[in-house]
Design a protein that fits this description.
heterodimer, A: extended, B: mainly alpha
């Protein structure tokens, strides 16, 4: 039991405990914070595996981007201090049962399967990753990279269009407001 | 006992099923989105573990992880735009009240 092993088990416990709390707490803001810690725990596991690039991407995109996005949307949609309604006990029991059975089945398969002798290789450097990602020759990932960039652009435009307040919705409201104002006067 | 591939597979499948449990039990759209993020993260962990322990010379799992993270970010942004729009028109983000999305 050396230091690296202890760190691994600590990170695993942090990730799983925060994940469980995130799906079971009844206060939605706390759920978002637990999710944030679970994502940071996963980034720690990437660091432990010596995939520093992926760990950095995980922290930047998930812990820095998506978690903040979720917290802001909670602020926009939820009343402060309001708890989520209680769920039916049957629904909870049956989903826990189904999930536990599926988990047991998967772990049974994993432990029965003989993986080929696993040798942990050295992690690739950022230079190697960049060279292969933008390579247009064999085993290069330039095409998916461009496709993802188009997808991100489309998602950005789509978000703006969806979240845009409709002008026609605002103007009748204003009209009603002025009418009310006049009536009051 | 030194942690190996099985340990990481245990974490990732546990995280996957925690996300599935949340998706089954929650009825609030934002918490369901959080469960989906957990599921996507477990998939990423799986890709990285297989890449590290079974194909150490290649980097395909790593690239799949990078692309999944990018797609997850786009998906979360679009989902939150839809949720905020739904909240504006219905003043609720409960899935039971979101039936009109079908039509």
């Amino acid at each position: 039991m050396n230091g690296s092993t202890i760190i691994f088990y600590l990170l695993a416990a942090l990730t799983l405990a925060c994940g469980v709390l995130s799906v079971s707490t009844r206060q939605i803001f706390r759920a978002a914070i637990y999710l944030l810690f679970s994502l940071i725990g996963i980034a720690g596991i990437y660091f432990w595996l010596q995939y520093e690039f992926i760990a950095a991407v995980q922290i930047v995109v998930y812990a820095g981007g998506i978690a903040v996005l979720i917290i802001f949307s909670i602020f926009l949609t939820q009343q402060a201090g309001e708890k989520l309604p209680k769920q039916k006990i049957e629904r909870k029991t049956f989903s826990a049962l189904a999930v536990f059975c599926a988990f047991a089945l998967v772990m049974l398969q994993v432990y029965q399967h003989k993986f080929p002798a696993s040798v942990a290789g050295a992690s690739p450097s950022v230079q190697v990753i960049g060279r292969q990602m933008l390579n247009v020759k064999e085993s290069g990932y330039a095409l998916p990279f461009e496709v993802i960039s188009m997808l991100l652009l489309a998602a950005m435009v789509g978000c703006i269009v969806i979240a845009l307040r409709n002008k026609k919705e605002i103007e009748p409201q204003r009209h009603q407001d002025t009418e009310r104002h006049i009536e009051i006067q | 006992m030194k942690p190996g591939l099985e340990h990481i597979l245990f974490i990732s499948s546990a995280l996957f099923f925690i996300g599935v449990y949340g998706f089954f039990t929650r009825r609030n759209l934002i918490t369901m989105l959080m469960s989906i993020e957990l599921i996507l993260n477990s998939v990423n962990l799986n890709f990285i573990a297989f890449n590290k322990y079974l194909w150490p010379g290649k980097m395909d799992g790593l690239f799949f992880t990078v692309f999944i993270i990018a797609i997850a970010a786009a998906e979360a942004a679009v989902a939150i735009a839809i949720i905020i729009n739904l909240f504006r028109s219905h003043h609720s983000i409960d899935v039971e009240n979101a039936e009109e999305l079908k039509y």
